[in-house]
Amino acid sequence: SGCRDTATALVYIEDPKLDFTVDKPAICRDQYATFTPKITDGTATAYWWVADGKSADTNATIFIDTFYTTGLKTIKLLIRDGMGCIDTLTKVNYLTVAKPVARITATPMTGCWPLNVKFTDISTDAPGVALTSFAWTFGDGGTGFTTTPSTSHTYLLAGTYTVTTIVTDAVGCKDTNATTKITVWRPKASFAATNFYPCAGDS
User: For 28, which of 82, 100, 173, 178 could close a Cys bridge (C-beta 3.0–4.6 Å)?
Assistant: First the structure.
């Protein structure tokens, strides 16, 4: 019969744009970071975060996580919008978690007084995190502060001394576990006599 009909329907297409930020780009180990999502051209109804390889299912807009290991952390966010569409965003090495591991060497570690000892800090930290200051305690009452990893100290008295250093990195993280011992000797000369009033020819 040649009859025709036409129907029209509205189709809503959402294309949410996903981003997120962190309150601090670098933190110390055992501290927390706060992540905030930013969504445009859509609304999210569910959030799934993956931080440091661990998944956290949450519907909270703000995600807070504590990091117990050092290194560069990759963060991933997955969202579902009101239409059921899924979007993901991964930021590789997005957060730096730092913590210096303090170690020092000394040369020499033993010797006679006065003994000048050179100390070198060989501490390590997360990749890309610089060590910025070193506070030294030499064990004999002497102290020092340097912004380079080497220093020296002279011991003027015999004894065994425990040397410690507190190292601080560019994030502000510290470690105080580095110690070494220095032993300084000072021989004491002495002699004994059996005849205090010798005559000529005595031996």
Answer: 173
- Whole-model pTM: value is 0.81
Residue type, 106: A
Q: Which two tokens stand for residue 186?
A: 């000072």
Cα 121 to Cα 104: distance, rounded to the nearest angstrom:
4
Q: How far is CA 54 from the centre of its chain?
A: 21
Tens-place pLDDT, residues 19-69: 999 999 999 999 999 999 998 877 888 899 999 888 776 677 889 999 999
Helices (H) and strands (E) in the chain, counts: 0, 16
The per-residue b/e assignment along 41-62, b for 16 or more CB within 10 angstroms, e otherwise, is ebebeebbbebeeeeeeeeeee
* Residues in a beta bridge with 75: 51, 91
Residue 118, H or E segment: strand 115-121
Which ranges constitute the DSSP H helices of the chain? none
172-186: pLDDT as tens digits: 999 987 889 999 998
Determine the Cα–Cα distance for residues 157 and 166; give it in Å rounded to an integer. Answer: 24
Q: Which two tokens stand for residue 62?
A: 């703000």
